[in-house]
Amino acid sequence: MRRTVGLVLALVLMATCAAYGAQPVNIGAMGAITGGSAISGEQASQGLALAEEDINAAGGVLGRPVKIIMEDSKGLPTGGVTAARKLIFQDNVVGIIGCHQSTVVMAIEPLARQEGVILMAKGSADMITQAGNPWVVRVREYDTLASFAKIQHAVEQGYTKFAIFHNTDQFGEGGRQNLIDALAKFGLEPVTVEAHNTGDKDFTAQLLNIRRADPEVLVVWTHGDEHALICRQVSQLIPDVQYYGSMAVSQWSSIQMAEGTSEGVLSTSPYSYLNPDPDVQVFAERHEKRFGRKPETFTVLYYDSAMMLAEAIRRAGTADDRDKVLAELKKIKGWKGVSGIEYSFDETGEAFNQIFIIKIENQVPVIIDKVTVK
Amino acid sequence: MRGSKLRNVSLVVIFALLACAEPLIASRFYKFVLALAVINVIMVMGLHIIFGLTGQIFMGMAGFWGIGSYILALITTRLGLGFWPALLLSSLGVGLMGLVLGIPTLRLKGYYLSITTIGFGEITRFILMNWSPVTGGVFGVFNIPRPNFGSFVFTNDAHFYYFSLVLAAILAVIASILEDSKYGTAFKGVRDDELAADAIGIDSTGIKVMAFITCGLFVGIGAGLYSSLLTYISPEVFTLEESFRFVTMVLIGGIGSLPGAIVGAVLLTFLPEMLRFLQSWYLAIYGLIVLGIVIYQPAGIMGALQGYLDRRMIAARREGKEYGAS
Amino acid sequence: MAELAIVLQQIVAGLALGSIYGLVALGYNFIFNAVGIVNLAQGDFVMLGGYIYGGTLTLLLGLPFLPALILTAVAMAIFGIVSQRIVYYPLRDAHPRMVMLSTIALGIFLKNISLIAWGTYPVSVPGLFGQRGLRIAGVSILYQYIFILVCVIILLAVQQFFFRKTTLGKSMRAVAQDRLAAMLMGIDAYKVIAITFAYSSTLAAIGGVLLAPVFMVSQVLANVGLKGFAACVIGGWGDITGAVIGGLVVGLVEVFSASYISSVYKDAIVFAILIGFLIFRPQGILGRATEESL
After folding, report:
1. Does residue A313 lie in a domain region?
2. ipTM of the complex
3. Cross-chain residue pair A89–B27, CB shorter than 8 Å
4. Is A260 among the domain residues?
5. Would an 8 Å CB–CB cutoff place A133 in contact with chain B?
6. A19 and A133 both lie in a single domain
7. Phi and psi torsions of A61, nearest 5°
8. Residues in chain A within 8 Å Cβ distance of C219
9. Is C248 on the interface with B (CB under 8 A)?
10. pLDDT digits (tens, 9 = 90+) for B229-257
11. How near does any CA of chain C get to the CA of B111, in Å?
12. A369 — contact with chain B (CB < 8 Å)?
């Protein structure tokens, strides 16, 4: 008995040594570490740190350890382009996970095509996978999916009067267009559309214009900190409207920032840390122990992407032949991630076609429904 | 060594080094950064004229840069004009912006001028973002062509680099000639003492407008090259932080020195890339470094070099005298 | 009726925002009055005050409001003296543009060091009143906004009294008008300037503390600096009442242009008005100060 244990230990030790002695396989990642959207970058890097640990604890890939190199895109196309070149030409990465900003993805997409590097995009704009670039896959909900799910849910509740309030950045503009399209599918039109700029703090003017139009539903498409402030101000100015937010409103941090005013808000998200799925729970607990806060959507999506890319490298049996890795990646079907979503890549490169409807009840994001498209 | 001689020697050395650098750098990443550096060199020469020579802290570089980039991008992709007329138009267009911005700001000095130019930059960004029918809004402009000679297209980054470097060298010669002309003297007169300049008959407001226009012409060329190098541009790039980065380039190199501005531009393009491992610390350290330069070395790198040469010359002269006396 | 309520609500929102900008403007004005320079890091000082109050004293140490406010004010006063020593004193005889650059650099440093110190998530603290507010005739107003307005009026009165009646205030004005003459008259000009920075930073700290519950504290909070600057220009430099009036004007312009012209161009409109004032009426609405010394 003791000998077997000793043997196993020795083998494990040898495997680890072999793994760490070898040249690491580099996986690139990109997010905003500085600049206005640095929150998303922090969430991403926390997920990636855990992913790197897990991949290497499982012996790395191809007998080599994996190194995840995260670069700062500043959330800007310029920053993204230089970061992508650094990852591709300096670090010779197999693929790049990110960026979470669609503009950045669009800026580096031609380079990924030209150099043949896998791009696991985290931007939500529909056009990312419509550019016809075989090297681009997306591991995130796309805007049409999220907007359709929201509108469908609201229409099912019997609502007919919708107001749209969106950020003027690419994320918000895309969301506005998708929401209008989704409403049109149900023969509806928004009663009013209002906009705000990133970094705005006071939304009284827009919310009063919305109040004038007297909607039943207010669909807000923006980022976490703006969501929190809008929730606070909506509770003052239009308390009886039903608030539907984009993904970020149901994140743990946004709920804290809203200080109770986001109670009853509905949103669509691929993730809630309250998902009873055991994989989700184990990861959420581990994350909280390590970083002192609940994981957010980007944390789990970056984590899952890294795990899937590592798996694709293992299946391809090579880290240098990126065509092969890409082919194996696209063959992944029904992969269960720590987000609680099952990923299956389709021919356009979308990883999933389902999303949760989430309601904030007693200050926690509760999954109340799951919408699957097609 | 006299100022203009030091300048010319430094310029020759700098451009020779830049020409040699391309084949010496192995990494394709740093080759790209080098191309970005030369584009920044072209743009910073524009700022050198208005800030370095004329002493006006122009905080709207991002506005000029954005307008120039968009002119080239829109003319080539929407109107289907070739690269060359588009580059010319982006230079002229930004030069015209210089006139438009220069005239109302004639009377403004110091903080007021700076704040006005900050406002100009921010308004430009808002317009680029929200005037979607023309600019394509936040989605940006795709598929901007690379420069070409007939059917030869500079898709290769190295070709693009040398092409930009030649343009930069020509512009540096023009900037030097301008600096040595009577306009250069007038620019410096306004910088050193506006009241005195007025008193000796320099039309300081007219000079400032001219500096704005020249700045625009230079920046327009750099901005056009920028959108051609990246082939995709979007409006959120052109922020106040970027404007200040250009001001810092001039400051680090040495206010008033053309080679200084160029060295500053190359340094501030490479440093952030080489210091990537600092991650979120980089910008904090950058702020500290700029603070340190303003306080301890306000004359910048070229000022330090000039000081060193002067000291050596004095020492040499003194030695020579002592030797002669004995 | 509903329309009237909406317009009233807009006015309330404009005044609330405006009092915040006015508060920031007071800080600018104080330094300008004493030294004739503009501290372009003023917005970042507000942010820093908010972080010290919200991030460290309230969330980390769990202090109640009043002690947290006092400690923040003290910390920021010390910080003001230190930063004066770094960004102003060595450059006291240099061209004012160098001071301008050094304060911008200080601002960049502060923004990014606080990103490292307090993290990327905005710091949200409920303050004294949380999200509670009054509701009168369909118009709602947060208690926090009423509190801010009261604070601004008190500070305004204190500042007026200070400059007009106290020896220190008078020597500050003397230093601002002519530093050399003041020094010849036996005023320790640099001590006076240090106190000026300390007080101005304290004002920024109060701004940060008051703003934290309504706007949260993040790097973006520093943007109130530009609005505060606009308030100073519109109200007239060097004029304390003008700064507050300028703030209210900026706040009202922002809300009404967002309501009736364009919500996405509202900041551009504020900038355009600012530029208009700079060019056509640089002495501001009240028009007492001259701009020559800028």
Report:
1. yes
2. 0.90
3. yes
4. yes
5. no
6. yes
7. -125, 140
8. 36
9. no
10. 988 898 988 999 899 999 999 999 999 99
11. 6
12. no
